[in-house]
Design a protein that fits this description.
The protein is an alpha+beta fold. It has three domains: 111 residues, Orthogonal Bundle (Butyryl-Coa Dehydrogenase, subunit A, domain 1); 109 residues, Butyryl-CoA Dehydrogenase, subunit A, domain 2; 144 residues, Butyryl-CoA Dehydrogenase, subunit A, domain 3 (Up-down Bundle). The chain contains 14 helices and ten strands. Helix 9 runs parallel beside helix 11. The longest helix is centred in the last third of the chain and has 37 residues. The radius of gyration is 21 Å and the shape is globular. The structure holds flavin-adenine dinucleotide.
Length: 391
């Protein structure tokens, strides 16, 4: 009998994966199976997951993955493919909200690691990598998320402090976070006037409101106001007015991991739809024996394979020290369109059962749009890629 069309059967073998990667996959898989998968529906309905999950994830090396060892990270023998595996195996639980909430440090901490002073890194990174403190990235504003160079939140130097005023929105882990990595205007107009500041969320003048949303229910998404918030100058991350490069660099890894997640979500959809199509009988035979339905699987697998091969290629370029901005942008579009297609087709195959709450496909279907908008929307990704091609 051939192998069932499950999550593993839809993973293309990669020439870049070694025994170390396979061992890591098994380790993350057993953590997800034990600590996450059994609770995922309950957490989604509750709109949150336990904070202790951060400590547990740190305990198995998920939080520190790829981060400097002097601050509690795990870097030796780790490459970008380990990060991709973590994204894929977490996605197997079928909740992007879980990943967004649990792994927010993956976008909030890198600017500090890349640009921050030794003192700032030594203060912030260890408790975050131990899963004891949470950090969020605050770039998007109500006036628009795509046009990053036009950020309005401002930080005005006054003695040894900056006085910060402004508003951020759609911030993942914004309510729970202890630390906020905030992009603010310290100089003139445009990209050249932006800096990153670390703002402790308990500072006077910081107020946060939780937002309700279509999907990602178990992650908290916040609107954050800064009203005359005093922030010591030592909380400046990197050089003043040099923050834009940090924002852009941060996006590369975010887009690569979002693509890995999107493809893994597509594979979850195929797995659940295939199990159903073999079991469910209509007109005297299993659904899978109807040609129209069979072809849906061929189409889904074709798109997953194409996306996965592109992901592998982009990850290899990143591992080689390159920064393939155009490819990473196009990969994000390719991967999220694959997820969108597979969520639609799997839902169709599941019929009414797919529309019911508590099923992975139903949740993934609700998460399609945020994957195609967050971290750089389709339109922005396509345009960025075209500009990289000299157009
Ligand atoms: C659940 C969730 C979590 C998020 N988490 C975070 C977070 O942790 N931190 C953070 O900083 N941000 C976060 N975001 C924000 C996210 O990155 C932004 O939503 C995204 O960058 C798009 O910005 P916007 O929503 O303001 O849309 P806009 O920039 O207003 O754009 C609206 C639409 O117009 C299109 N568009 C805009 N400009 C152009 C153009 N020039 N040409 C063609 N089309 C254009 C866009 O593609 C989009 O489809 C999150 C968003 C969501 C929904």
């Amino acid at each position: 009998m051939s192998q069932p069309l499950d999550f593993d059967a839809t993973r293309l073998p990669s020439p870049h994966m070694s025994e170390s990667h396979e061992a890591w996959r098994q380790s993350v898989r057993s953590f997800v199976t034990r600590e996450i998968a059994p609770h995922i529906n309950e957490w989604d309905e509750a709109g949150e997951f336990p904070r202790e999950l951060h400590n547990k994830a740190a305990g198995v090396g998920l939080i520190g993955l790829g981060m400097p060892e002097e601050y509690g990270g795990v870097k030796t023998g780790v490459d970008v493919f380990h990060t991709i595996i973590a994204s894929e195996e977490l996605a197997r639980a079928g909740s992007g909200g879980l990943i967004a909430g649990l792994m927010t440090h993956g976008i909030g901490l890198p600017p500090i690691i890349a640009l921050g002073s030794d003192k700032l890194k030594a203060r912030i990174a260890p408790p975050v990598l131990a899963g004891e403190k949470l950090i969020a990235l605050c770039v998007t504003e109500p006036s628009g998320g795509s046009d990053v160079a036009n950020i309005r939140t401002n930080a005005v130097r006054k003695g040894d402090n900056y006085i910060v005023n402004g508003e951020k929105t759609f911030i993942t882990t914004g309510c729970r976070a202890d630390y906020l990595t905030v992009a603010a205007r310290t100089g003139g107009d445009g990209a050249g006037g932006l800096s990153f500041l670390l703002i402790e969320s308990d500072r006077k003048g910081v107020s946060r409101t939780r937002l309700k949303k279509m999907g990602w229910w178990m992650s908290d998404t916040a609107s954050i106001h800064f009203d005359d918030v005093e922030v010591p100058v030592e909380n400046l991350i990197g050089q003043e007015n040099a923050g834009f490069a940090g924002i852009v660099t941060n996006f590369n890894m975010e887009r690569l991991t979002m693509a890995a997640q999107a493809i893994a979500f597509a594979r979850v959809c195929i797995e659940d739809a295939a199990a159903w199509a073999l079991e469910r009988r209509t007109f005297g035979k299993p659904l899978a024996k109807h040609q129209v339905i069979r072809h849906k699987f061929s189409e889904m697998v074709r798109q997953v394979n194409a996306s996965a091969a592109y992901l592998d290629h982009c990850a290899w370029q990143v591992r080689e020290g390159q920064s393939p901005i155009a490819d990473l942008s196009l990969l994000k579009v390719q991967a999220t369109r694959t997820m969108e297609f597979c969520a639609r087709e799997a839902m169709q195959i599941l019929g009414g059962a797919g529309f019911m709450r508590g099923c992975r496909v139903e949740r993934i279907y609700r998460e399609v749009r945020v994957m195609a908008i967050g971290g750089g929307s389709e339109e922005i990704m396509n345009d960025l890629a075209a500009r990289q091609m000299g157009l």
